[in-house]
């Protein structure tokens, strides 16, 4: 009986020590950032928002953010072939500030969604692309967890750099999977007589002359991507980083924007626009405030 009592107290002592250590570790962690595991709801909400906005961006056939991936196949001169490109996201066209850490998970998710759409439409029931792409998508959540749990910007930047490298490695794994599929199916990569196709170039901005009627108005815009994310999140639009346009001058614009035009006498207009060509754009007050 004494032996069992001794073992009981020994085990109790160990548990108490472990409890103390957990309290200490929690205090240290609490002095910095909240561990992402302690606030999974916030991470879940961020990941859900990123995925929803990314899917909507991919569904926009004219999105200036996406250099579209492709996966095509055919048969020529009795040679079966495939060709592909993994595409790219034009970060500068997103409208997010360079210092915004959420640029990276958005870039990841947009490319994942664009690739998923292409493979689902063109690879039939083949599964060679699914596991690598799922691996790439898992990095989105890990990146959000890093952002939410790392208040020190220097440490966060190091983590984001590592996540970016991991994402490129995941895309590399996807490419190797495509090559493996081609080899197993005895498919040539690149159309015979054409070779491996290069992607489309980065979208060019259009020249837009900004005018107001009456004169003296001020116009500011955010990209449709930023506005869409703001609406989904329910954020305060006054907290967005707006781009002021040079009224009377020419601006380089492409794709969708949300604008606010204001005049000194209270005149105002607010709406969405889409820029798909060189043009003059005149803003007029819609109502008085």
Task: Tell me about this structure.
This protein is α+β, with helices and mostly antiparallel strands and 289 residues long. It has 2 domains: 37-189, no CATH class; 206-288, Sandwich (Immunoglobulin-like). The chain contains 6 helices and 13 strands. A 5-stranded antiparallel beta sheet has the order 8-7-10-11-13. The protein has a 3-stranded mixed beta sheet with strand order 2-3-5. A 3-stranded mixed beta sheet has the order 9-6-12, with no helix packed on it. A hairpin with a 2-residue loop joins strand 2 and strand 3 (79-85). It is globular.
Oligomeric organization of the protein chains: single chain
Radius of gyration: 26 Å
The general outline is globular
Structural class: alpha+beta
Low-confidence stretches: 1-34
Separation of the first and last Cα atoms: 86 Å
> Major beta sheet, specifics?
5 strands, antiparallel
Order of helices and strands: HHEEEEHHHEEEHEEEEEE
Total strands: 13
What is the helix tally? 6
Strand order of the largest sheet: 8-7-10-11-13
Q: What's the average pLDDT?
A: 85
Count of structural domains:
2
Strand content: 15-25%
Helix content: 40-55%
Could you name the key traits of this structure?
6 helices, disordered N terminus, about 20% strand, about 290 residues, 13 strands, three-stranded mixed β-sheet, Immunoglobulin-like, single chain, alpha+beta, five-stranded antiparallel β-sheet, globular
